[in-house]
Each structure stands twice: as C-alpha cells, then as structure tokens.
Specification:
Blueprint lengths: L1 H19 L1 H5 L8 H20 L3 H23 L4 H9 L1 H23 L2 H32 L7
Length: 158
C-alpha cells in the first residue's frame, strides 16, 4: 500500500507537471519531429489533460449513479410491491436515502481524512473495514440491479 500511494502521488504530480509544460513539449520550432508526430502529441496532451481533470469527478459520478439507482430501487420495492402507508411515508420522506447518503458520504470523507492523516500501518484496519463495506454495497447493488431488471421484464422468460 505504501508503494501504491507513492505511485499515485507521483503520477498525480507528474501529470500536473506535464500539463503545465505542455506548450514547451508541443512547440513546433523546438524539435525536428515530422508534422504527424507533433499532431499526435497535441492529441495525446488533450487526452491526458482530459483524463487528469475527469479523475476528480470519478467519486462524485459514482456517488450520483448509486444514489439514482438506489432511489429507483427503493421506489420500486416500497411503492409498487406494497400498499402500506408506512412504507409510502418512508419513501416520501426520504429516510432510506438520507441514511444511505450519510453512510456513503461518511465513508468517503472519513477515508480521505484517514488516508491523509495517518500512516498506512495505523490505518490498515480501517481500510479493511471500508473495503468490506464497499464490497457489500457493490454486491447489494448487483443483486438489486438483477432484481430490478428481472421485475421490469428485461430478462426474457423461459
């Protein structure tokens, strides 16, 4: 884990340095490469810059995707399969969404804080717990997706 953390920090700051010095790398007057190589270098720099910027949106995009999916799943489970006013109130008040939102966001913030504040040796137990929690979340998502799609008629009947 220590080595992976060093690699990630090196990749982050190395990519930043490449993007900052992009003008010097692709300037036409400073090298003797053919035009097509210079064009490919410009395209690669655009690609690299895009990846660098989008990596900061990955956690948020995953969070939004999971929230939308669980909202649809909770609506399907609580409203279509039951006539209970209690379950309707639970969904309408967003109790499950608030619990899930707090749990997921808490894990993300706490993981970020622990990874910055503690050395790996002291944080390894916490990261094991987070890995299990996220694994349970992903497995429940897979089962939820399968259940949701099966009841929506996505899978053909035999």
């Amino acid at each position: 884990m220590k080595q992976r953390r060093r690699w990630m920090n090196g990749a982050l700051f190395g990519t930043y340095r490449v993007i900052v010095n992009m003008g010097a790398m692709i300037s036409c007057g400073r090298n003797d490469h053919p035009f097509y190589r210079q064009l490919l270098m410009v395209l690669f720099m655009i690609y690299l810059t895009t990846l660098y910027l989008l990596q900061f949106l990955t956690v948020g995009a995953m969070f939004v995707t999971i929230m939308i999916f669980y909202d649809e799943l909770f609506k399907f489970l609580l409203l279509t399969n039951s006539n209970s006013t209690f379950l309707n109130d639970v969904y309408d008040n967003g109790i499950l969404k608030k619990i899930f939102f707090s749990f997921y966001l808490g894990l993300i913030f706490l993981s970020t804080f622990v990874s910055i504040a503690l050395p790996i040796e002291r944080a390894i137990g916490y990261f094991n717990v987070v890995a299990v929690a996220m694994g349970i979340l992903m497995l429940s998502s897979l089962f939820g997706i399968t259940y949701y799609l099966a009841n929506r008629g996505f899978f053909p009947a035999d």
